[in-house]
Amino acid sequence: MQFTSTFFALFATVAFTVAQPPAPGALNFDTLYDNPKGTLGSTACSADVGILKGHTTFGSIPNFPHIAGSFLIEGFNSTRCGACYELLYNRADGKQVVIPFTIINTAPAPSFVSSLQGVTDLTGLNRDQFPGDAVISFKEVPSIDCGF
């Protein structure tokens, strides 16, 4: 009986996560997140717990360089550390690009701050073309989408 209730609770969580509509946000970059040897010890998600347990560097995160700080992480050891969010960007050519990012640090609301490579992969813009804050949409997705 416990298996059945656990299964339905998990199914409801996944169904809710997938069903939620994207929310508006902003994206910027910090080249700090481009360093594969950068340590999680320098972030709000440094407690070595939850889904990030055993990951000590940015490069050890399965979907590096698609990592980001986010306003969704309230502070040290947030329960959202390691959560996976799809970031959606509408490029000038009309193409919508969607990439899952693992959140590992705090950022000002309503922003995500990623590696320069992550921003380039999502927007198609290089450092010189980047406008400052890119308008994005985001939604939480299952951690498997980020390689966990």
Task: Please name the fourth-level CATH homologous superfamily.
Answer: RlpA-like domain
Helix fraction? 10-25%
State the strand order across the main sheet: 1-5-2-4-3-6
Under CATH, the topology is which? Barwin-like endoglucanases
The unreliable regions are: 1-17
Query: What would you call the shape?
Result: globular
Integer-rounded radius of gyration: 16 Å
How much of the sequence lies in strands comes to: 25-35%
The SSE string, one letter per element, is: HEEEEEHE
Signal peptide: 1-19
Pfam family, one: Cerato-platanin
Subcellular location: Secreted
Protein name: Cerato-platanin
Any chance you could write out the topology, listing elements then pairs?
Layout: H1 2-19, E1 23-29, E2 67-70, E3 84-90, E4 96-106, E5 111-114, H2 116-123, E6 134-141
Parallel strand pairs: 1-5, 2-4
Antiparallel strand pairs: 1-6, 2-5, 3-4, 3-6
Describe the structure.
The protein is an alpha/beta fold and 148 residues long. It has one domain: Barwin-like endoglucanases (Beta Barrel). It is built from 2 helices and 6 strands; from the N terminus they run H-E-E-E-E-E-H-E. It has helices at 2-19, 116-123; strands spanning 23-29, 67-70, 84-90, 96-106, 111-114, 134-141. It has a 6-stranded mixed β-barrel. InterPro entries: Cerato-platanin, RlpA-like_sf.
